[in-house]
């Protein structure tokens, strides 16, 4: 996979091309002082969280008092002040107001930008992932494949027809690559909306297909009449959520899929935590027995 293929899937690249067919969104460049703060090795504190922090410290102090644990002055008096970015905060608030007052954020990774998307109530049963190879729509998968949606199974033909029509009219030959993956939402009126674009390759979840099927010359490639369509066909075949098999915290799953709104901040915190855990393990291993 080439770097250009990943770059072309950035929100800030594809959205201007297809914004008429997607959820209304605004893209805000991150100021250098915000970037510097996010990348700083120190503790990240969000403005407005002081009350919760103080309450948490109070609860901890009460609990510690009951257990007669004595803490040093350094540990009890340390305070961290949240930074203020008034100009950027003002721009963010203006963007939120322009989008109706409710949004969900994303972060653009290669170029530091904050993406605010108008809040929309999307029913998981209306989301589908579409695979395009050589500018041909070859496969469509139910997005939330862990659940059975009766209407998806019963309306397979209508869903395929709607997505194919949307692809041929608005997406085909208009994207910057000929191989890519795009997610759509089909609303209750049958209208299709573009939600996201991802690279065509193993970095993207193939859901009910395998990448061997999608990249090979098998049954999928031989289908000439239309794309292969797969969905969960009954409650018997419902699969558990992948994170449940390993009891992975939902936050970690969001980090790996990029769906968490605060992925960048959480990722930095996670890396720092992993580093600290590794240092503690080394100290324990080197400690005299």
TrEMBL record:
Pfam families: D123. GO terms for cellular component: cytoplasm. Coiled coil: none annotated. InterPro entries: CDC123 (IPR009772). It comes from the Eukaryota. ATP-dependent protein-folding chaperone for the eIF2 complex. Binds to the gamma subunit of the eIF2 complex which allows the subunit to assemble with the alpha and beta subunits. PANTHER family: CELL DIVISION CYCLE PROTEIN 123 HOMOLOG, D123 PROTEIN. Belongs to the CDC123 family. This is Translation initiation factor eIF2 assembly protein. It comes from Etheostoma spectabile. The lineage of its organism: Eukaryota, Metazoa, Chordata, Craniata, Vertebrata.
């Amino acid at each position: 996979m080439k770097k250009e293929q990943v770059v072309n899937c950035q929100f800030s690249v594809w959205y201007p091309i297809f914004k008429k067919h997607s959820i209304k969104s605004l893209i805000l460049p991150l100021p250098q002082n915000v970037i510097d703060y996010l990348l700083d090795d120190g503790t990240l504190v969000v403005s407005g969280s002081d009350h919760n922090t103080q309450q948490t410290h109070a609860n901890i102090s009460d609990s510690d008092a009951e257990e007669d644990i004595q803490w040093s002055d350094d540990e009890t008096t340390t305070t961290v002040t949240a930074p203020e970015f008034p100009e950027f905060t003002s721009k963010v608030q203006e963007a939120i107001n322009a989008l109706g007052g409710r949004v969900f954020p994303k972060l653009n990774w290669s170029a530091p930008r904050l993406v605010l998307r108008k809040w929309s109530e999307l029913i998981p049963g209306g989301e589908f992932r579409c695979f395009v190879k050589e500018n041909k729509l070859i496969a469509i998968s139910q997005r939330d494949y862990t659940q059975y949606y009766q209407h998806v199974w019963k309306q397979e033909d209508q869903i395929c027809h709607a997505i194919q029509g949307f692809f041929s009219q608005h997406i085909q030959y208009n994207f910057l690559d000929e191989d890519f993956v795009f997610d759509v939402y089909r609303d209750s009126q049958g209208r299709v909306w573009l939600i996201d674009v991802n690279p065509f390759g193993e970095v993207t979840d193939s859901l009910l297909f395998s990448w061997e099927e999608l990249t090979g010359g098998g049954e999928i490639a031989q289908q000439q009449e239309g794309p292969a369509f797969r969905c969960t066909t009954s409650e018997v075949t419902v699969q558990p959520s992948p994170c449940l098999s390993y009891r992975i915290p939902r936050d970690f799953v969001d980090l790996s899929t990029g769906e968490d709104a605060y992925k960048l901040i959480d990722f930095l915190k996670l890396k720092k935590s992993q580093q600290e855990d590794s240092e503690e393990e080394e100290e324990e291993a080197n400690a005299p027995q």
